[in-house]
Design goal:
Blueprint: E1 5-7, E2 14-16, E3 19-21, H1 31-46, E4 51-53, H2 62-73, E5 82-87, E6 89-90, E7 102-103, H3 107-121, E8 126-131, H4 140-152, E9 156-162, H5 166-175, E10 180-186, H6 193-196, H7 199-206, E11 209-213, H8 230-247, H9 251-260, E12 267-270, H10 275-281, H11 291-302
Parallel strand pairs: 3-4, 3-12, 4-5, 5-8, 8-9, 9-10, 10-11, 11-12
Antiparallel strand pairs: 1-2, 6-7
Amino acid sequence: MVMQTILLGNSDERVSRLIYGCMRIVGDGSSDARARGKRAVQTAVDSGYTVFDHADIYGDGACEALFGELLQESPGLREQLTVVSKCGIRFAGDPDGNAPKRYDFSPQHIRHSVDGSLSRLGIEQLDVLLLHRPDYLFDPHELAAVLSELRKAGKVRHFGVSNFSPSQVALLNAVCDVPIQANQVEINLHRPDALTDGTLDQCQELGITPQAWAPLAGAVPQAGRTHFSDVDAARVQAELSAQAAHYDVEDWLIALAWLLRHPAGISPVIGTTTPERIRSAVTALDVEYTREDWYRLWEARNGAAVA
């Protein structure tokens, strides 16, 4: 198993094709859970992952802090990694009890969030900052100005977005002098909207790297995000099992191979803390997945052949 590498968007940043998602690395916050989280990160490093995905809200900042501890304990590790964090989601009660949950791309919040992430991670620069959820009130000129400011200050090297529609990407891209290098959206068998709503088309057109969060939802029960009926789920599982037997891999790896087959160059975010699955995910990169099998799984997913 060898990790593939790609260029991030139109940048010169060479990164691993698979991304390790750090949302769960603190678990319940116990010492045992934190130790498991550190082992998971180290397993990902040893398996060739170089991109580590965070957000200011993961574990209320505790995930970034734990990752920062690991960087301090392993001198030289920082230079091997592409550290990503996200900002823009604010929970109810922040900063006072009357505040609602909201999305916030105001310059002051973005500056505050970036400074907090850098402090918790113990680093001087984020390799990539993603805007986590589109703020319905964002002013593209104001947002472009603060992104440019952060880059000039040396606090952020590259920028991307998350959960943006093609029109929102186009709006920001039209006025921003810093390129958008990634768009992290939900892409999986259950939620394949990016295939049909223009997201992946735009990524190919503009050279943006699409990153898939929850890449296994709808393919494995433990992913927990599927709304397939029992009949739908059984039909998808039967096709996954048949293809897994053909390719001699586990069925969940077929769901990853299905994403990897798309010419947009999707980078799945692997969020498990189980070392065996972190290592096994790399196997999906070696599956020589055919167009015919891609459409067989698409047909199983839809319950009908393409029109």
